[in-house]
Structure formats: C-alpha cells, structure tokens
Amino acid sequence: MDKHELYEFLDIETPEDFQYVENVSLYLESEDEFEPEDLRELFASLDGREVSKLLEEYFEEIMESVPDGETETYELLSNVLRSLTGLMKSGYGEGIGPDAVDEMERFRRWYSMDSHVYLTDDRGAEYDVPVRDALFSKRMEKLGEGSYRYDFTEAYDYPLDDYVVNLRDLTEMDQYEEYEEDLEQ
Length: 185
Hints:
Mean pLDDT: 87
Order of helices and strands: HHHHHHEEHEH
Oligomer: single chain
Distance between the termini: 53 Å
Number of strands: 3
Number of helices: 8
Structural class: mainly alpha
Largest sheet: 3 strands, antiparallel
C-alpha cells in the first residue's frame, strides 16, 4: 500500500487530519501491509501527546471488552499502552519517533493478525482468532450474540521492550496527580 492509499485507508488527506480515535482504530485493526517508511513519515509529523490521548481512548474502549477473569490480558494491554504512550512522549521533540512507530506496528500485527485466542462456543466448536476478533466477539455477546469461553493463554507472548520515560513527563504526571488530589479535598 503506497502513501496515497494509506491516507485514503485512514480517511485522511494530510497527517493533520489524523486526529480521531477512528483513525487509530482503522490503523490498529487493519490486516493490510503498510510501507514502514510511509508510516514513519506520517507519524513523524504528528504530536506524540495528541496521538497518546487517542491511543488511551482506543485502549480504554477495547479493554472494556476483556472477559471477566482475564486479568493477564487486561494487564498486558495496559502495559502495551504504557509502553506505546511512553515511547510517543519520550524526547523526540516534534513528531513521533521511529521506535514508537515500530512498536505500534508490532502491536498491530500481534493484535489483529498474529495472536491466538481460542473461542469455544456452546456446541464445543473451537475457533482460533486474533485478540482483536476475540474482543469484538465479547462486545457482540453484550449485544445478545452467541457466547463463548475464551482462552487467551497463547496471546500472552507479546514481548514488551523497555522504554525511556522523559523526566519532564514524570514531573508533569506528578504535578497533575497533585492537582487532582487538591481538587478532591
């Protein structure tokens, strides 16, 4: 997929149009092949803090669909989110650096294609689906669709890299937490 097709796929005309959680959803839920250079160019022109907010909103939505009792899955997604947002906010000046883009791409491939979650229906039929589809099935259950037993065990193999946290971000986080505490009192 070339740059023009990528922008069309993401429903944007320019990088500045990448400002909605729907853009994040289109990207992360895709099984298409993207050119790494085009992704890096797109994200290099975006504000890491703004994209982090979009990711947080997206992850909040998908994490609501994690089945009860799947604490490891919930924690894994929380850790991936922390890693991604940490990379996006860490010291690149303007734009999102290539290591954050590479990590998003690794997550997208795992989430939408390479992971294995086993769903078993009431008849005992088993389905091997990626995490994306398992969470979608759980959302559909809430709307009255068929129910499944979920086995996320094989999906836990997502390797998380360490990331550097910008000290300015930590300071801002501490100040924000102090501000919230003041509001509560």
